Amino acid sequence: MPHQPSQLKGVSLVLLAALLWSTSGLFIKVLEMHALTLSAWRAVFAALALLPLLRPSQFRFSPALLLLMLTYGGTMVGFVYATRFTTAANAIALQSTSPGWVFLFTCLVLRRVPLALLPPMGALLAGIAVMMSEGDGGAGEAAMLGNLIAVSTGLTFAMTHLAFSRIAQPPAGAIIATNLLVAAVCFLLTPEDPLAAVEGTEWAAVIYLGAAQIGLAFWCFTIAFRYIPVPQASMLTLLEPLLNPVWVWLMIAELPSIHGVLGMAFILAGLLGDTVVRVWRPDLRRFTPGAGP
Asked: Contact, 40 vs 183, CB < 8 A?
């Protein structure tokens, strides 16, 4: 009984983080600026929002940090492109397959395949196969390209998890450094004037995407680990891929294809099964990551 208030606090923080994460698809869809411009400004405001968490004395550069910056940065920008080209449901579901890639990498390194994890990993693979089989009909002629980019973000997000497990410093500094790198690269590459491209109320949306959807969500998620274990937090973050396409449907009436719905069902089943296995078999947790930053 005395642990219930702190447990409730942890659950509430994770649910708030998942709710904030789930809104990315809607704003990426409705903002008309170039994907690189959006990625750049989003990264700027995310870095600014996280600055109070930075402890310079604890920041250490390492090869693992460089890998994290490159892979997490690639995930951030790739997700924006994927959401633009395919449906929000496909983009978030295919990115969420990162546990499958971590499973594959770990099996290759350890030269061992845990049978208990094969069913959920099989469900993830089935979800990817179903979504990729829809061709160009899911969200226009660019749907297949969007699906391919979304699958690649699942791979880069898996590498981000592996890099996170190898850095011996608080994660805030790594996330800030990543966002600064993303901002610099995207500002250099965007084909439009990044200041002129953002008009009026669009600034509020861009600031929200950086400061709240990334910054505040990251803070809530990391603080939640003081009160609840990682497996429980991972299960609660399944709210993100569930709600992401819902907001897009409610606001702009975008519906996933039959392939998208079926593929997401397989992927969510795989993610849920993966979390259950990690709770049931703590010795297998190395084969799959927790929820993302």
From this structure: yes
Lookup: tokens for 56: 């310079």
Query: How many alpha carbons lie under 13 Å from residue 261 in its C-beta half-sphere?
Result: 7
Measured in residues, the chain has a length of 293
CB-side neighbour CA atoms (13 Å) of 77: 22
CB atoms within 10 A of CB 192: 12
d(CA 189, CA 187): 6
How distant is the alpha carbon of residue 22 from its chain centre? 9
Q: How many CB atoms lie within 10 A of CB 173?
A: 20
Cβ neighbours around 89 below 10 Å, total? 28
Q: Is the predicted pLDDT of residue 2 greater than 50, yes or no?
A: no
Domain range list for the chain: 23-287
Measured in degrees and rounded to the nearest 5, phi and psi for residue 30 equal: -85, -25
CB burial string 28-61: b at 16+ within 10 A, e below: bbebebbbbbbbbbbbbbbbebbeebbeeeeeee
pLDDT tens digits, residue range 74-110? 999 999 999 999 999 999 999 999 988 988 888 888 7
Backbone angles phi, psi at 138, to 5 degrees: -70, -40
Helices (H), 210-257: 217-224, 230-236, 239-252
Per-residue pLDDT, 254: 94
Q: What is the pTM of this model?
A: 0.91
